[in-house]
Specification:
51% helix, Rossmann fold, 8 strands, 9% strand, 8-stranded mixed beta sheet, alpha/beta, disordered N terminus, globular
Length: 409
């Protein structure tokens, strides 16, 4: 057992607790150390007090040395946040760090991936049915705006009476008005990709849709996303409490899954630069410029690693580091390997992607389970019913149960 009274008991922390510790450490330690679990585990009272004293003196010198205005205001704000971070870390070192509860309201689960045909809609449909069978209220929503087919995987007809397009065109005032009851438990908000340009919704329409999704009344909202890395798909993925990335063992698929995760993370940082996400404090124009240069240039990320990006932020102004880091720490995708004949083969893919994400993105990817390749899954559409509904005690239901449990739903 770790020495709870003298060091951080990292292994006993929940995901929320660990994220809070990392966010607090951003006020005292450089980026590379914040992502080093062995370093965090060995933070004790003497290390904490020593670094806090040095940082406090540094900030106080800045406050005294700068004229009244934005720079000094930022230093004062930073000083107060640093004090709060010290209190939190002191509690952690003393072994009395409280559990941090998740926000109430519906849990949004986004099912995404870098390409089509890898099983996103199949998984979204079956996990929706599985959760509904457990007594939860579930809304399955088709956000593959250019290739909507989720309703088919839920046993419904291809052309629905009302779809997301009707909501966006203001034929119906709310998403609740276009909800359709399915035959197997979940309610459905369907898409219609038969209209020219259906996938290319404008920014204002996307934001309207995002606000409406947040306002839905359900225990779980399952978002079935398109197989691309457009801003629309990435923003829907980032909306979720739990982002699930589907891949297969095909090399193009699993390398694409890493690229999807990387692009989603850089989009998250870029959204912060564009003031599209809520933040505790407005970013100054200079920081926004730094973040944009580090995340996008001719459509490609500039910084090779997240640590190098954060180093650029700290060089520009160390007071900005915690806010940017908080955006990165909150990014916790899960990888689901579909059509894997064995756990060993699924783990080989998962470990490859996890290692890449850890090395270059400083992101810990969850690998909560895998889906085997079964003929009854591939034949799902011709049977006109989700496999979990046809066989609630079968192998697929068991695999989804493991995934749901490991994610903590």
């Amino acid at each position: 057992m770790y020495q709870a009274l003298s060091m951080l008991p990292i292994k006993s922390y929940s995901q929320n607790q660990f994220a809070a510790v990392q966010e607090a450490c951003a006020y005292f330690f450089p980026p590379k150390q914040i992502f080093d679990i062995s370093f965090l585990r060995n933070i004790d009272r003497s290390i904490l007090d020593d670094v806090c004293l040095r940082k406090k003196k540094q900030v106080q010198r800045i406050i005294k040395g700068r004229k009244q205005g934005g720079s000094q205001d930022k230093a004062i704000y930073y000083h107060e946040k640093m004090r709060q971070a010290y209190v939190l870390l002191s509690s952690a070192v003393n072994g009395d760090f409280p559990e941090i509860k998740s926000d109430s309201g519906p849990k949004i689960i986004a099912v995404g991936g870098s390409k089509g045909g890898i099983g996103k809609s199949m998984f979204a449909a079956n996990v929706s049915v599985f959760l509904a069978q457990k007594g939860f209220s579930v809304i399955a929503m088709d956000l593959d705006l250019g290739g909507a087919n989720l309703a088919l995987y839920l046993g419904e007809k291809y052309i629905l009476d009302r779809t997301i397009n009707d909501f966006l065109k203001k034929k119906y005032p709310s998403l609740e008005d276009i909800i359709i009851d399915s035959s197997y438990g979940p309610k459905i908000i369907g898409g219609d990709s038969s209209e020219l340009g259906a996938a290319n919704i404008h920014h204002a329409q996307k934001m309207k849709l995002i606000r409406a999704i947040k306002g839905l009344d359900a225990d779980f909202i399952i978002l079935d996303l398109g197989g691309d890395t457009s801003f629309n798909m990435l923003d829907f993925f980032l909306l979720a409490d739990h982002g699930l990335v589907i891949t297969t063992r095909d090399s193009a698929s699993y390398i694409g899954s890493y690229q999807f995760i990387k692009t989603a993370l850089y989009r998250k940082i870029n959204r912060l630069a564009d003031h599209l996400d809520d933040a505790e404090r407005d970013l100054d124009p200079q920081l926004s410029t730094v973040l944009k240069k580090c995340t996008v240039a001719n459509g490609q990320p500039m910084s090779q690693t997240i640590v190098s990006l954060l180093d650029r932020v700290a060089e520009n102004d160390p007071f900005d580091l915690p806010q940017v880091l908080k955006s990165i720490i909150g990014f916790k995708p899960h990888l689901i390997v579909n059509r894997a004949p064995s756990l060993l083969q699924a783990n080989q893919v998962a470990h490859t992607i996890s290692d890449l994400a850890k090395r270059y993105l400083s992101v810990r990817i969850g690998c909560p389970g895998h889906i085997n390749k079964y003929p009854e899954i591939e034949d799902n559409l011709s049977n006109n019913a989700p496999l979990v509904a046809r066989d609630p005690d079968g192998k697929l239901a068991g695999e989804i149960s493991v995934i749901v449990t490991n994610i903590g739903l």
